[in-house]
Amino acid sequence: MLKRGDKIEGKWYKNEYTxxxxxxxxxxxxxxxxxxxxxxxxxxKISEDIMSLTREFEILQKLPLLDNIPRVYEIDxxxxxxxxxxxxxxxYIEGNNLKEIIxxxxxxxKDILGISLVLLEMMNKLYQLGYIYGDLKLENIIINRRTxxxxxxxxxxxxxxxGCIKEFTPTYDxxxxxxxxxxxxxxxxxxSTTMLIVCLITKREYNPFRTSMKKMLYIVDSLNISExxxxxxxxxxxxxxxxxxxxxxxxxxxxIESASxxxxxxxxxxxxxxxxxxxxxxx
Length: 283
Known about the structure:
The chain has 283 residues and is an alpha+beta fold. Helix content is 35%, strand content 22%.
């Protein structure tokens, strides 16, 4: 919709933003890299859907103490070609998302397990604060180039514990794969984290409407990884973990084992194990 050089001026705050480039597209809106009137680089998410955009902005405002999410600054509206759009301005995170990273082939098993552990604990922390991150996907997770922290950058799929799911990605949704479950958040968390591990290892995401779980298990069995990791992944996909702490401890054990096994550690380590632990805000 917008191109480089286009300007947006808010109706209420009158702040002007100049479009630099498009950086993302989701179910709710489009995200642009912009520069404000003071010359600061920021991100701007714009949409015609005032309800969804306002809800996302308010959730981000309520989570200011979590340093793994972008800060938000203001919400406003703007008229363009006789149509009203709504937008909010947030911190711009310079870095690469996980999809871009795996396309470059720079993740070892150690990296993948470490990233998955941090993401799981981030989502679990959100849950403890009363929110569920429902739209997990590789494009929504960025590794900050400056701080090396793992960041969530799209909160359109976040909802309150007692609310309805507004957005979700079928790849990481246990129900979309037809796996029997009790509709507990812990089950969804474990399944989505396990599927993330598979996607990062194989460097692709899977469509549950085109790929069966039987096929997924075959793919796992054919991977060049340890038997322990294969069993862990299959148990996670088939919803055999009853306790999230048991899953976390199992993931940590596999991470430690991968760090000590030189045969499966690549030279292109993006995130050091010790650093991963230090940046997780649960520690």
